Amino acid sequence: MKSSATGGGLVYSTDAGRMCPACRKPVAQCICGQAAAPKGDGVVRVSRETKGRGGKAVTLVRGLPLLPEPLAQLGKQLRTACGAGGTVKDGVIEVQGDHADRVTELLKAQGYAAKRAGG
């Protein structure tokens, strides 16, 4: 006996394995949990900040229209090119040190409309 509260339907397929109950696609191809890329004005802003970091400079990259995984990959590329550490937090790439000019040029070379922001 089926309960209407469970939604019923295909749970497992021998062809594709586990199925998503919402979109009825294989879990590996499920689009339900994916967030859309953030929308912005299309301009990537690169700035330098020292606030709250003990006077040490950090280059911030904001406004990239990327999902979290590609954003993390781009962050790694930028940190490697600058020879610095850093992280990706809340959709913002942080590169340790004052590398704003270099990061701007690297982003322009990859086709992004990047510009310097701030002082």
Topology at a glance:
Layout: E1 12-13, E2 17-18, E3 44-49, E4 58-62, H1 68-82, E5 86-89, E6 92-96, H2 100-109, E7 114-116
Parallel strand pairs: 3-7
Antiparallel strand pairs: 1-2, 3-4, 4-6, 5-6
Features:
alpha+beta, Translation Initiation Factor Eif1, 7 strands, 2 helices, 119 residues, 21% helix, elongated, single chain, 5-stranded mixed sheet
Secondary structure: number of strands: 7
In order across it, which strands form the biggest sheet? 5-6-4-3-7
Outline: elongated
Give me the CATH architecture of the domain at 44-116, please: 2-Layer Sandwich
Describe this protein's structure.
The longest helix has 15 residues, at 68-82. The chain is built from 2 helices and 7 strands; from the N terminus they run E-E-E-E-H-E-E-H-E. It starts with 11 loop residues before the first strand and ends with a strand. The model has no long low-confidence stretch (mean pLDDT 81). It has a domain at 44-116: SUI1-like domain (Translation Initiation Factor Eif1), CATH 3.30.780.10. With 119 residues, the protein is α+β, with helices and mostly antiparallel strands.
Short description:
The chain is of the alpha+beta class. It is built from two helices and seven strands. The longest helix has 15 residues, at 68-82.
